[in-house]
Amino acid sequence: MTIRPIRPLATLTILMLCAVTTLQAQQQTFPTDYFKHPLQLPVSLAGDFAEIRPNHFHSGIDLRTGGKEGEKVYAPADGYVSRINISAWGGGKILYITHPNGYRTVYMHLSAFCGEIAQFVHNYQYDHHVYAFDIDLPKDSIKVKQGQLVALTGNTGGSSGPHLHYDIRYASNDQAINPLYFGIRYSDPIAPTIDNIKIYPANSSTTINGKNAEWFLNQPKKNSKTSNRQDTIAIAGRFYTGIYTYDRMEQGSSSKNGVEKIELYVDGELFHRYQVSSFMFEETRAINAIIDYPQYQRNRNYYIVTRHLQGNRNHWSAAYRDNGYLQFDDNGIHRLEYQVSDYKGNITKRTFYVRSLPLPDETKDSLRNIQAQGDPIIYFKPYTFSRDGFTVVMQPYTVYENDEVLFTQSTDAARLSQRYTLSLKRHPLPPHQSFNVGIPIPEKVPASLRSKLTIVCINGKSTSACTTTIDGDRLTASTRSFGSFAVRLDTVAPSVTPVNFGNGKRHSASTLVVKISDNLTGVVAYHCYINGEWVLAEHDGKTATLTASASTLKRGNNKVTFVVTDAVGNSVEQTWTLVKS
Ligand SMILES: [Zn+2]
Question: How far is the CA of 166 from the centre of ligand 1 (A)?
Fold first, then answer.
């Protein structure tokens, strides 16, 4: 098989096109007086559009609700309810309204729905005996008018405090757009903060201030909260840069909000630009390719880097030369200037200088002697791997750059299978999309227990079960991380522990709360019955609780039953007698 190198000219053209796309998105005008603000509270932003979160961009803005739940949410314009999604995780209770002007608005972490929407949700849950569901609704089956009360704010799903998450998207393809382009009135008198800038060696021969290592522009002082600024860096060889920056909107605010635009000028010429006006959900995981991923894993500081990986097809980060790498071989001094803007146009600048040093000749030679150690993977081609029964199948563009796959095997703790470990040698980033792994079913497992087998992914101390299917005499699973894979058996049912009631005790509270947990494959179904009648139990992922209404308890003795089931069908059923006076 031969690999055709992409001609530098073609690469440049693609990048120029990308830059043009970004500019068009930015110049596109959005209606600024169509949507009324959904809350009757002063606008205070706890989070911005396209802030970097684990494996994704934040798809909207987070509106503060004064630390309280239950604030009224009003439809910002006429339209109809087009989707309702309720989950113990992520956005919690989510409402989607589609408007006749081609946009769709989305509200997350709600505590409740109102009016006709609430009635619809209640009926759906009692008809299907579920709390969590996700359905699209036909056009105009539930219409809403501008200013109509549609929901109450809350803290459901992955939210860490009461607020309203608000998205605006194109109705046609669900592409998320920055809601601040739609005329939301807010104040932001403070320019962005540039926390730090980092210089990265591009390879093992680059030296930055004499070392082949990353260099922080602001060097932390020992035993002090302040840092030493250094404005001239001596560099030999190829390098790239990164910046950690955020925007505060109010004096003393603890929220580090996102910025609108980052530009790096090299000797007065635009070299790199980062700007996210809109994005598709399928591409958002590519943020891992534009940040300094190892640093993000260490302390959640997201340095946006200039280096452009070839398999990263997004248009948010455009390098105007040489895939975002720099190299000066002229013994000269070069001026680099970062300019960071927020959505109000406040700009912060930071200038530093690179003194270019020549690379010693012997290091140039040693570059040619790098030996491949792993199995080569080409980012734009499918990849398969098979060793001792363990198989891997990847689609094109699963990794962001040509690389080598490293493979080892060892004895797994459960001794059902080997532990198979995959990693990338050169660019240790998570894959852009899922890939499949396959492991033979261990012969020693009796046929009766095969349905309880699962493939697990082991990363350091964390072991998580993948959704596993049995395919003949093999187990297969889809995964979105590298790491170690092995086979485990899950024969343990979930546990249920009452929080606010006890067997034979009097109960006067309005709810019944239990804690649930599972050892491996996780809870997938749960039911609560009061005297044999199904009642809604709301699942909250972050507190691992089920909360049911106690309103149907009768005077005297009542039987309360919870049934909880994991992903491989292990089930627990527990019943308590409660007395109501
Ligand atoms: Zn949010």
Answer: 7
